[in-house]
């Protein structure tokens, strides 16, 4: 493969200390190796509890790995997020690494359009351009225009998810981590998301995701990465 290497996991392990169970240890990831290139969409597969969400959270540096390397291509060089300083992690998140889960973090009193536009404004885009792009994405994702000026707290689960996807994709970041972003979407809106992901890949993004819906998985995956639950330690 000649496309640039965007993400490289080496010998990655994660255990949790269970403080309520006299410090027992739960091994969730052990010695994982994975390489993700620009333009690829690798889908994590495996049963519930195999550690798929944990892996995405370790890559996004929400969890610290117990051992191993999380190399991310950032500004043309590989940065190991397992050892990076907090300000560097924040810079990688702002410009290189997007994480879209199935849940929108609702900010009280902030309208949907502004929630979607915010990451682009933070990158220095002017307000009109950011709102225009946010509107384009919300329209493509079939979020009715009458909702754009309302805070999404009262939106349906599927509407909130579509606002969340629009927010996650508005800045074209080189690596996308997706944790079931389409869980409550109907077939029509899943199609739109598949199309948006195809466009992101064509523009050079690398995608690593979890999609329980088999149809969606088959549509978006260029490769599966099988995972399985570890034996109890
Ligand atoms: N913060 C935590 N503390 C302790 N255990 C945790 C923590 N986060 C996850 N786990 C455990 O790690 C294991 C893997 O969980 P994870 O959510 O990564 O699995 P998954 O493959 O994404 O499952 P699903 O498909 O059901 O979403 C589970 O046994 C879970 O209880």
From TrEMBL:
InterPro entries: AAA+_ATPase, ABC_transporter-like_ATP-bd, ABC_transporter-like_CS, CP_lyase_PhnL, P-loop_NTPase
Domain spans labelled ABC transporter: 7-232
Highest taxon in the source lineage: Bacteria
Keywords recorded for this protein, A-Z: ATP-binding, Lyase, Nucleotide-binding
GO molecular function per UniProt: lyase activity
Cross-referenced Gene3D superfamilies: P-loop containing nucleotide triphosphate hydrolases
Family as reported in the entry's similarity comment: Belongs to the ABC transporter superfamily.
Name the record gives this protein: Phosphonate C-P lyase system protein PhnL
Gene encoding the protein: phnL
């Amino acid at each position: 493969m000649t496309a640039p290497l965007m993400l490289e996991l080496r010998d990655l392990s994660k255990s949790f200390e269970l403080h309520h169970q006299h410090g027992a240890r739960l091994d969730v990831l052990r010695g994982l190796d994975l390489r993700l290139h620009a333009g690829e969409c690798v889908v994590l597969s495996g049963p519930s509890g195999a550690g798929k969400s944990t892996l995405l959270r370790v890559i996004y540096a929400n969890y610290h790995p117990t051992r191993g390397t999380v190399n991310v291509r950032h500004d043309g060089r590989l940065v190991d997020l397992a050892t990076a300083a907090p300000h560097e992690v924040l810079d990688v998140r702002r410009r290189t690494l997007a994480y879209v889960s199935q849940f929108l973090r609702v900010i009280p009193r902030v309208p949907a359009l502004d929630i979607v536009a915010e990451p682009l404004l933070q990158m220095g885009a002017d307000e009109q351009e950011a709102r225009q792009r946010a509107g384009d994405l919300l329209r493509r994702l079939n979020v009715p225009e009458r909702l754009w000026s309302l805070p999404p707290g009262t939106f349906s689960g599927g509407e909130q998810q579509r606002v969340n996807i629009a927010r996650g994709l508005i800045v074209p970041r080189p690596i996308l981590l997706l944790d079931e972003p389409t869980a409550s979407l109907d077939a029509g809106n899943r199609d739109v998301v598949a199309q948006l992901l195809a466009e992101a890949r064509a523009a050079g993004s690398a995608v690593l995701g979890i999609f329980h819906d088999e149809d969606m998985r088959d549509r978006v995956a260029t490769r599966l990465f099988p995972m399985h639950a570890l034996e109890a330690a």
